[in-house]
Amino acid sequence: MIARTFAALGILLFAFGCAAAQEENKDGAAASENKDEPRRYESKGRVTAGGKAVAYKVIAGETFIENDKGEPVASIFSTSYIADGFTDPRERPVAFIFNGGPGSASLWLHMGVFGPKRVRLPEGPDDDGAAPYDLIANAESIIDVADMVFIDPVGTGWSKTIGEGKTDDYWGVTQDAASIREFIRRWLVEHKRWNSPKYLMGESYGTTRSAALLEALESGWTDIAVNGVVLISTVLNFGLDATDAGNDVGYIGLMPGYAATAWYHEKVDRSQWGGDLERFLDDARVFATDEYMPALLKGQMAPQAERDAVAAKLASFIGLSESYVSRSNMRIPLRRFMRELLRDEGMAVGRLDSRFTGVEVDGVGENPEYDPSAYGIDAAYTAGMLDYFSRDLGVDIKEPYTTLGGVRGWNWDAEDAGGENAYVNVAPWVERAMRQNKDLRVLAANGYYDLATPFFGTEMTLAQPGFDRSRLTITYYEAGHMMYVHQPSLEALASDVRAFIRNEP
After folding, report:
1. pLDDT digits (tens, 9 = 90+) for 426-445
2. What residues make up the domain containing 335?
């Protein structure tokens, strides 16, 4: 139950150039509409990405997953971008890309950072308002270095169970991974890409999915080895950022993220650190592990003077009053922090991206009305994705498109990874995959202002003994969970992922 409660509150639910750079060509586009067959829409496009003009084919459509009787029981919708001019699969990597939730479609990474067209949000952070929204050619797309397959798991986008299929067979840590593994296997068969370098790229719960996929893909003799995994806003060990009663380590994982948020909103004395954010966060990390964590573990066994000193220092880092921190027993749950930091200004900060703020009518409320960084971007992405599907790719599907929240009753009971009444920890699956695949590399991308999957929780996870640090890269951006909504961070993230695929320093 703990894991489920935290999943509802603490996972990423989500997971943006020159317009003339892309020319969509739908001449000769083909669409399969037989209800007994998977629907399929083909088109062509061209984009200048990474400084290189790339022509590509687009295949948007359904893949049927069958049971052991050969009967279709699920339909997974995906969008594939395959560059022209490559005949040797060894020369062309392929990236399988998905978002998180669980329950989120892949539109965020698709229209936010990797696809050939993206949503352009207001310079901000600021609310996206109402249509019309700007859709522009994406010069940061990675189509220049890899083919891309955007996957919507069952219950998201237009993916669903069919026939005798039951959601219980897909809505769970291992069940979800098994269905995506089968999708990947079928894609490799159809496109004859078994010998291509393969990458998994997931955001938020999508990083959890990546770990479970490594276990599903690389275990057993039918091994589909992966070259690299990109973890965007990582959550592998759910205990390291869950502020539930009795889980003190969650406060340690969050504390430097609180500090970063206070810095951004000028609630700390920046002059003490010479205006240097990196230096400030280094000190916050040291305080979190060397002073804050021992104080929480000692509890009332620590002398009152010691507790008061730690509370005062904590308050100076996270921008709250010393009195509030002391009365909270130095344990400030996430939603309370979101509401308290800017209470005097009548505002709350975002969870996905704490740079965002929202007006709070209730001046004494304990928790924020909602997450300002969620309602600040969702309309633009949904409208942008559906406009792009219908106008550019020729997708003609009348059923509702589930952006987020399509799954209920997720099964967290994953063998060897915790489960019911425990915090799920899939990090050992990544460790094991790295030990058993000498070519597997990992890139973990973090936003400093991400309070949903805080960067220090990721650092603590990846610092455990089983990880080969020589094949692990950790990057940081001055934005939040979806760091790509910030133009400088979008450019940096795309550059880092491109270098990762090329195996450059």
Report:
1. 999 999 999 999 999 999 99
2. 242-371
Question: How confident is the model over 361-390, as pLDDT tens digits?
Answer: 988 989 898 888 888 788 889 999 999 999
The DSSP bridge pattern shows strands 147-152 and 160-161 to be unpaired
Closest Cα partner for 232 from 279, 199, 262, 280?
Answer: 199
Reduced to 3 states (helix: H, G, I; strand: E, B; else coil), residue 193 is coil
Is residue 137 within 8 Å of residue 53, measured between CB atoms?
no
CA distance 416 to 251: 25
- Which residues sit opposite 60 in a β-bridge? 41, 79
Tokens standing for 58?
């687009």
Expressed in angstroms, the distance from the first to the final Cα of the chain is 42
CB hemisphere CA count around 159 (13 angstroms): 34
Encode 58-83: b = buried (16+ Cβ within 10 Å), e = exposed. Answer: bbbbbbbbeeeeeebbbbbbbbbbbb
Question: DSSP secondary-structure letter at 113?
Answer: I
Helix (H, G, I), strand (E, B) or coil at 69: coil
> If you ran DSSP here, which 8-state letter would residue 122 be given?
P
Q: How far is CA 219 from the centre of its chain?
A: 24
Domain end (from 344, 371, 398): 371
344 and 424 fall within a common domain: no
Q: In sequence order, what E strands does 155-224 have? A: 160-161, 198-204
Classify 91 as helix, strand or coil: helix
293 and 211 fall within a common domain = no
